[in-house]
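Reminder to self: tokens first, then the designed residues, so the page reads top to bottom the way the pipeline ran.
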């Protein structure tokens, strides 16, 4: 079997497993990079030295350590699948470890920047109320951009204070809604026009004129405009998710519940936020100190 044939079968298998089209497309792009490096060789020609040369090739192309890690992670997943399917005799990923990526400090939004951001919207209009609610969901519940635009109206339970989100890998999770976010959603829903001759839209956030599902490109364009309006050049959608995670821990939340809210599969992905709050931990430590609490008793 050639490398190209194996990649196509691997991608079909990912679809059968229920991985999202975005995940499958990511695998395709990352594995095609490997094939361009090796050529369409027979699978038995793929070896550990070849994989190591590919890693050096990626590094020499000027990729960041995080990008290189993404490509190698996809290759390891593919080669593990090849071994499990019996297409290769050697379990190469067992000896081909994932390279360490440089951990960058996450730059979250300040209180002043958040105030400037949420002052940018005209809440009397449907579009303004919608965009405000989108930002509120990202900041207050940690939703990803794709999770916002695919959020189903029927999965938002305002009275109970939660929403059911379709996350990565078609995995659903429940996220809590803060009081201000619930208020923002109610205000937005009250401004969505009702069209008796058309069925109600399934997605929560819709285009103003057509009432069709909002696109990711529309939200990205919104954040490009908000950069200028709010005077925050580094502003992007995912920065609100980072800000949520950091503030959640600062305000006393624990990493285990944060993992569930964010939809991460491991605690390692959540721990990157812990190092951002050392000063807060020092100030609040008397509340948690076993000896201090014993003395109070």
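Designed residues (297 positions):
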């Amino acid at each position: 079997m050639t490398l190209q044939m194996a990649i196509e079968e691997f991608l079909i298998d990912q679809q059968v497993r229920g991985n999202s089209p975005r995940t499958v497309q990511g695998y395709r792009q990352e594995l095609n990079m490997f094939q361009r490096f090796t050529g369409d060789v027979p699978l038995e020609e793929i070896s550990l030295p070849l994989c190591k040369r590919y890693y050096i090739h990626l590094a020499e192309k000027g990729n960041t350590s995080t990008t290189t890690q993404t490509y190698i992670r996809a290759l390891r997943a593919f080669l593990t699948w090849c071994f499990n399917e019996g297409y290769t005799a050697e379990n190469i990923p067992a000896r081909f470890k994932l390279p360490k990526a440089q951990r960058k400090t996450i730059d979250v939004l300040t209180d002043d920047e958040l105030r400037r951001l949420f002052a940018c919207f005209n809440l009397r209009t449907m579009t303004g109320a919608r965009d405000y609610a989108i930002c509120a969901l990202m900041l207050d519940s940690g939703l990803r951009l794709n999770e916002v635009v695919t959020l189903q109206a029927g999965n938002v339970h305002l009275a109970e204070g939660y929403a059911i989100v379709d996350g990565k890998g078609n995995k659903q999770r429940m996220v809590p809604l803060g009081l201000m976010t619930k208020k923002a959603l109610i205000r937005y829903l009250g401004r969505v026009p009702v069209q008796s001759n058309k069925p109600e839209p399934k997605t929560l956030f819709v285009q103003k004129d057509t009432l069709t599902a909002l696109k990711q490109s529309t939200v990205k364009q919104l954040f490009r405009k908000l950069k200028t309006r709010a005077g925050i050049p580094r502003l992007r959608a995912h920065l609100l998710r980072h800000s949520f995670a950091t503030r959640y821990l600062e305000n006393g939340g624990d990493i285990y519940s944060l993992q569930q809210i964010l939809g991460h599969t491991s605690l390692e992905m959540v721990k990157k936020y812990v190092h951002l709050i050392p000063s807060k931990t020092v100030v609040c430590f008397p509340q948690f100190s076993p000896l201090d609490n014993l003395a109070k008793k």
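The two ends are 71 Å apart (CA to CA).
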